[in-house]
Amino acid sequence: MNSKQLVLNAIQNKETERAPWVPFVGCHAASLIGVDAETYFKDADLIVKGVTKAYEEYRPDGIPALFDLQVEAEAMGCSLKYAKENPPSVATHPMEEGKTLEDLKVPDANDGRFPIVLDATRRICEALGDKIAIYGLITGPFTLALHLMGSDIFFQMIDEPEQVHKLMELCEKVAINTAKMYMDAGVDIIASVDPMVSQISPEDFAEFVAPYSTRIFDFVKSQGKLCSFFVCGNAKNNIEEMCKCKPNNISFDENIEMEFVKDIAQRYEVSFGGNIKLTVTMLFGTPADNINDAQNCMNTGGNKGFVLSPGCDMPFATPVANVKAVSSLVHGEIADFLEDSNVLDGIEVELPDYTDKSKVVLDVITLDSASCAPCQYMMEAVYAACEGLENVEVNEHKIKEKEAVARMLKLGVKNIPTICIDGEPAFISIIPDVSTLKGRIGEAKDKKGLK
Question: Is the pTM above the cut of 0.70?
Answer without folding.
Answer: yes
